[in-house]
Amino acid sequence: MNGFFYILKRFVPPYKKYLILNIFFNILAAFLTLFSFAVIIPILEMLFQIKEATYHYMPLGSASLKDVVFNNFYYYTQEAIHAYGPSATLALLAAVLVFMTLLKTGVTYLSSYFIIPMRSGIVRDIRNYVYDKIVTLPISFFTSERKGDVMARMSGDVAEIENSITASLDMMFKNPVMIIVCLAMMIMISWQLTLFVLVLLPIAGLVMGRVGKRLKRQSLEGQKQWGLLMSEIEETLGGLRIIKAFNAEHKIKERFHRDNHIFYRISNRIARRQSLAHPMSELLGTTAIAIVLWFGGTLILTGASSMNAASFIYYMVIFYSIINPAKDLSKAMYSIQKGLASMERVDKILNAVNPITDPANPREIKDLRGEIKYNDVDFSYGQHKVIDDVSLHIHAGATVALVGQSGSGKSTLADLLPRFYDVQAGSITIDGVDIRQMRVHDLRAMMGNVNQEAILFNDTFFNNITFGVKEATMEQVVAAAKIANAHDFIMATEKGYDTNIGDRGCKLSGGQRQRISIARAILKNPPVLILDEATSALDSESEQLVQEDLDRLMKNRTTLVIAHRLSTIKNANLICVMHEGKIVERGTHQELLALGKYYKHLVDMQKF
């Protein structure tokens, strides 16, 4: 339960007013329940002549509040019998019972009415916190986590929190109030019998608690397996073309069916254990009633209790009214155990530490020139060293190209500049300022990226091109699209710039997706450009056209280009050849050809 109250402490404060109103109406409902049951006593005692006595009106203060209330209630009932007769009094008491029940049910509804915004709000907040955390976490976090598992935590685990913990909020705040109020009344009627009850209830709670702990462990296992299934679904959708091309449908089906069957078995164990909550609480509750009935009846029969038969019946009615809240409470405990298992998985995201942080006293570059220096930079993925003692000076407004075989560290070197990762040794400076001394937002605002894979969103052409740019006009978007040679095919679509391009731009060809990505970078108009294979998906004619426009765009800007097609970077101010994380050659196109080593080998291979 510590985990449940920890969740309340984290997420309930914005909804305190709803919680206070819920508790208030729960307390009111509990008292109305007791008073409605109290109407039964005079029916038993006076109308059926179980107790023959004469009552006189007692003013407040003449005796204890309990004695005054009960005496005057009997007095008015007695007067009603004398004035209207037993049958009319019975009808009147029945009407009072109905009216009290109407009040009780209305107040009970109000208690649920005010807890609903709190329940829904907590789930909304958890989703927002998880999504915000995912967006702010560094790229390195997702290299060690399955995307499908992260999706499962945002969908399945948050849904489980909603179904279990938040759905139990009403029961957790309503049932304890009912139990406490009823126990207080039971103590007033017979403290000896209530003391006996207080020994029985913790024993039943202990039994239920042991089963609930086991449920939490199984639920955690089930959510992990669900995350694995989501990962497989995500991989299947992303790799469907390859699956079909290699006739691997049967293999991928077998893997999914096997893991889905494991989830099926775990789900069965969880559901069966959760289904045990109701019959177990029913059995324990009935056993408790039977024991109290025997013990209380024995006290009355032997004369060891001051209660009479009518009071004992009222006592048993109150005790029975505790059993249902106790059973609901036990079911809530089961649900909470499942929800806590999901909360543990969600917390792995919420509590993840982002190493890419803003400094306490950030520095700003007011007159940006764009001079970039890599100073003895090292970087590793785990034990694998990717960048090894690299130093590179990129002059303001210069174009520097990185070439080399796949895996040589080109993309990683470029990713260190906008702090997608942080250097592990050495430093990177812009105009003499270490990038770790700048705000991450300010640093990335200086840069425009065009990646090897065109990353687009399920939105319109206009919104994809203006992504990350505030208040862009249609004229500016059209101008950027024309520079990227995208305007003509955009206008050829049904709605032009308002046409939706589908999931990840699936309605476009590879070359068209890349041109939209280039147009997005052009519209941002950044002082620093990072082009990671920016024209790799274009055909030769489009590549030449876009490259001419990019050449004009790169003038007077600091540009870092990663290229496999060497023809696109032959005019770069500096070309650096990377091999196994080191810069092994640097110079202009002609200088590197004259060396006759790595670069010339790459050129010859492409000519061939």
- Provide the residue-averaged pLDDT: 79
CA-atom Rg in angstroms: 37 Å
The tally of beta strands, per DSSP, is: 10
Derived structural class: alpha/beta
Assign a percent range to the helix content. Answer: 55-70%
Contiguous helical run count:
22
Strand content: 5-15%
Net shape: elongated
The largest pleated sheet is described as: 6 strands, mixed
Low-confidence stretches: none
Ends distance: 70 Å
**Strand order, biggest sheet?**
6-7-8-3-9-10
Topology of helices and strands:
Layout (H helix, E strand, L loop, with lengths): L1 H10 L4 H23 L1 H8 L17 H20 L1 H51 L2 H5 L3 H17 L5 H21 L1 H48 L1 H6 L3 H27 L1 H25 L7 H42 L21 E10 L2 E11 L4 E5 L6 H6 L9 E6 L2 E2 L5 H6 L1 E4 L10 H5 L8 H10 L3 H5 L18 H15 L3 E5 L7 H15 L3 E5 L11 E6 L2 E6 L1 H7 L2 H10 L1
Parallel strand pairs: 3-8, 3-9, 6-7, 7-8
Antiparallel strand pairs: 1-2, 1-4, 4-5, 9-10
Helix pairs in contact: 2-5, 2-8, 3-13, 4-5, 5-7, 7-9, 7-13, 8-9, 8-13, 9-11, 9-12, 9-13, 12-13, 17-19, 21-22
